[in-house]
Automatic annotation (TrEMBL):
It comes from the Eukaryota. Residues 161-313 form the Palmitoyltransferase DHHC domain. The DHHC domain is required for palmitoyltransferase activity. The keyword Acyltransferase applies. Its main location: membrane. One of its GO terms (cellular component) is endomembrane system. This is S-acyltransferase. The lineage of its organism: Eukaryota, Viridiplantae, Streptophyta, Embryophyta, Tracheophyta. It is found in: Endomembrane system. GO terms for molecular function: protein-cysteine S-palmitoyltransferase activity.
Amino acid sequence: MDFTSPASPSSAAYDVVAQEDDQSTSVDVALETNCWGCGLCVFVSPNASGFKCGWCGAITKQNAVKIDNKHFRWRVLRDRCFVSIVLLFMLFFICIGIWAVYPVVFSISYLCGIFHLSIEVILSISTLSSFYLAAFRPAGSPPTILWGSYPTVGKGGLENYTFCYYCSKPKSPRTHHCRSCGMCILDMDHHCPFIGNCVGAANHRCFIIFLISTVISTVYLAITTSYAALCIWPSLDHRPTRMWNGVVDSELIFRVLKENILAFLSSAMFLPARGLVLVYLFISSVSLGIGLTVLLWQQLFYIYIGKTYLNHLRDGDNAETEKQDCQNLVRFFGCPYSSAIYLPSYWKSRKIHEK
């Protein structure tokens, strides 16, 4: 059949593709789709995992699958149980520490007891208040922006933004969706079940202050409990080891250590209940302090390099573009930028680490 009318561009393009399809087994056909940010029509390859709009800069992920959050209620229940356990654990440490330590401290000196009790009250208030702010303060939601149509969105207005299929709204580059909280979190670092909340832009500083206060409290508790335990520890009942001809060898040192350890353990059997509690508090505070110190060091390192934990995992081994400097720590804690002039010169220098 002969057609006299001229072929349209779309039909001509289709003919070209059809002819190429006869000659080749695999052909990339450009599919017509719309950018979610500005609504402009774009042509992309069906094999592409995503594309970036040339007008607004929004990133569209093709064939994105929304994972059904079946265990959301169980996660919420888990977080609430963890928060209750942590809160009860802190209150137990505070109360049992006062009961076990301060009668011994007050027996030494009334002024010394008042001083240490004041320190205990300050550390307790600081730890509990920072824990409350980190646990029950919103972690931070991304700002509301205009999107969805070409006249509304300016050029580059959604640069590197992605679309959250759970919240059905744009998601900035430093925003992540937390399936445990059921919302997008701005500058999300991680979801901590022990505070039952995400650590984000709004409560990250409170979380760091909570870690610092808890580490200081555990160090203080380890020192006071060890001193109080030594004060009430029963006297060691053992005979001193005599040296033969003033010679000290490895066998003598081993025998001395063995006798002192055995005498120390045998005297522990006569410890009162207060002494056993002091030993438990000392071991718990040391182990907890070591773990929290490692976590605090990791958090401060990520702040120093200008990243969050999730951004560090997402970037992987890619080259770091952020400035690694102590100025990041100064800005994080809300200090004015001019306060850095009081830092030592080697702190003020820019430190770039090369891999």
